[in-house]
Amino acid sequence: MDNDPVRQAPPAEPASARPARPELARFARFVLVSTLAAAMNFGSRIVFSQFVPYAVAIVLAFVVGLSTAFLLARAFVFSDSTNSLKRQGFFFVAVNFFALAQTLAFSLVFARSVLPALGVTAHAEAIAHAIGIGIPVISSYFGHKYLSFRTAA
């Protein structure tokens, strides 16, 4: 009989205590898709800023990012959705309008108030926009999971 605790196998972990790996994988795919869409959003904002005011450029860039995010999320994150394409599109836009409000508010506050108060003046709008884009990740994930790309139970 071997009572050496080092050699004994650890007790089995109950299934309920294990993380939901499929959900983590889905969230990871969402973050990757969102990062690519955010890059499209961010890059296009820089281009749009050459022609229109900052706030307008943020909104136009948001449309570029939104289109990218919808196509990629539908194909790679929520491909098991049972919602119709029309319903997916409607809720995707609705969830993202909430995200746009968050992005715009945080971008403007950081660009006009927070960063200047911290002494950051170089590239303040770019830094603020990057922060603003990152803010709605969690709310968007759950909005898309339960509204845009819902699956039948």
Task: Kindly name the structural category.
Answer: mainly alpha
Task: Give a short account of the largest sheet.
Answer: none
Please count the helical segments: 5
pLDDT average, as an integer? 87
Cα Rg: 21 Å
Helix content: 55-70%
Question: Low-confidence stretches at least 5 residues in length (pLDDT < 50)?
Answer: none
Oligomer category: single chain
Total beta strands: 0
State the order of secondary-structure elements, H for helix, E for strand.
Answer: HHHHH
Q: What is the global morphology?
A: globular
- The CA-CA distance between the termini, in Å, is 50 Å
Q: What fraction of the residues are assigned to beta strands by DSSP?
A: under 5%
Brief summary:
By secondary structure, the chain is mainly α. The chain is built from 5 helices and no strands.
